[in-house]
């Protein structure tokens, strides 16, 4: 069955054309001089921070995307000043949402999106390797409207 999504080989072949006239947008020195902002988001293609916040490709903030957009999966102490985002819907899971939630390993078990974001915000703020003055903000994205709503602790 044909899929509308490119295969990994298709993507790798595109790299040959992407290297011929490549010029880095930022040097590491210029990047380190900027405020370090990290956005954590789900890998769901409907929840791309470049789309819902208008982030230009190749420019800060750093974007960490993982299944579920959970903080425990992807941020370490890398000179971060501000961080955080998350999306609302489980996305491209097989089976019903209830079947997923019933799984023992499911990370959002018995939580609303807002509760899950608050849990991750606390996890980040309690990280002993991050500076205490890191500003941690939480948001939920409505993938139907592309609107982000701040979650307050």
Number of domains: 1
CA distance, first residue to last residue:
46 Å
Class computed from helices, strands and strand pairing: alpha/beta
Helix content: 25-40%
User: Quick one: overall form?
Assistant: globular
Q: Could you report the average pLDDT, rounded to the nearest whole number?
A: 73
What name goes with the CATH superfamily? Carbonic anhydrase
Structure, described:
There is one protein chain. This protein is of the alpha/beta class. 26% of the residues lie in helices and 16% in strands. The strands form two sheets. It has a four-stranded parallel beta sheet. A two-stranded antiparallel sheet has the order 5-6. Helix 3 (49-52) links the parallel strand 1 (37-42) and strand 2. Mean pLDDT is 73; it is low at 87-94.
Q: Can you summarize this structure?
A:
The chain is built from five helices and six strands.
Task: Describe this protein with a few key phrases.
153 residues; alpha/beta; Beta-carbonic Anhydrase, Chain A; 4-stranded parallel sheet; two-stranded antiparallel sheet; 5 helices; 6 strands; 26% helix; 16% strand; globular
